[in-house]
Amino acid sequence: MLTKKRMIQSIAIILVVCSIVITWQWFDSKEWLRDVGLLFRRPKWFAFMVIAYLASFLLKAAAWRIYAGQDVKFSFYFHAISYSLLVNHVLPIKVGDGVRTGLLMKNGRKSWEDALHSVAVMRLLDMLVLGVIGGIGIVRMGLPSSWMWVTLLASGTAILATAHYLPVIRKFPFVVKHSAYFHLKMLSGKGLAILGLITFSWVLEAGVIIAVFQIINLQLGSISLVWANSMTIAGQIFHITPGGIGTYESTMSGSLALLGIDGKDAYRAALLSHTFKFLFAYALGGYSLLRMPLHFREMKAWISRVTSQTKSQSYNKVRKED
Question: PANTHER family per the record (predicted)?
């Protein structure tokens, strides 16, 4: 039987293979270096990219702080996200959330369980917002999968809204505790603020691809580019390479091609935007290392803790299925 993990890995491999194929077909090192040079020769658009991308992370940190607790300094949340971004662009597996969790636990005086809960909820809300943006675009384009996308989003939202009240949940005290906190926060005025900040953060992140289109003289509306960016980031769930190399290029190129951009130009825009994001991740991570230094062994311990928990949950699930 194909497990969820195996299915994700299979899709990730397919996306990487697709990326290898289009890279073999369209990659031109001279053109890529020329495009990278254009980033720095268009200072206004480069500044726009930096400001928009940085602001998106500031808003994510603000949303996380509202959810997890405003008794902890904003800088802790921001640097935790910065470290997570750096780790995800260095390692082939997406384990930055381990460092994010550990840093909040260390500096926010929270238990590992509570810190991990807040990180997991932020990821869940990220995917929900990206799914809604992606779904709106899919419905507007009238793609054959529109009905399936809407059904999945509606079902997922309904489960999140009612899970705390389901009788089966009452059998698991751990789940009851965390679902109660989730409902307390998200069904209050703070919930709207959190969702608003997360939504706007993803709109701002699309500023990177919007600027890239201006820099390399491609034409597409901002709303369409917000959709393409959302589909691309949602596709990073299939992360098996540093920074999602391959999956990013495949999903961004495919999304732009669906919007009518020539395949080679779509790949060129995807490659340049991803190059910028790599440079940004290393620069922001370096800044956090200077402002809030962490020992390598600390990060390693937190990452190991998250991965060991994931493996344990998978093992228990398999045992129950057997």
Answer: UPF0104 MEMBRANE PROTEIN MJ1595
Number of Cβ within a 10 Å radius of residue 184: 12
Q: Where are the domains of the chain?
A: 43-64+96-108+115-321
Closest CA to 298 of 286, 289, 311: 289
The DSSP line for 165-215 is G-GGGGG-HHHHHHHHHHHHHHTSHHHHHHHHHHHHHHHHHTHHHHHHHHH
Distance (Å, rounded) from C-alpha 99 to C-alpha 104?
Answer: 9
pTM: 0.84
* Predicted confidence pLDDT, tens digits, the chain (322 residues): 445 566 666 666 777 777 788 888 888 889 989 999 999 899 999 999 999 999 999 999 999 999 888 888 999 999 999 999 999 998 877 788 889 999 988 887 888 888 888 898 888 889 888 888 888 887 777 665 555 555 655 555 555 555 555 554 554 454 555 565 566 566 677 888 999 999 999 999 999 999 999 999 999 999 999 999 998 888 777 667 778 888 888 889 988 998 889 989 999 999 999 999 999 999 999 999 999 888 888 888 888 887 776 555 444 444 444 4
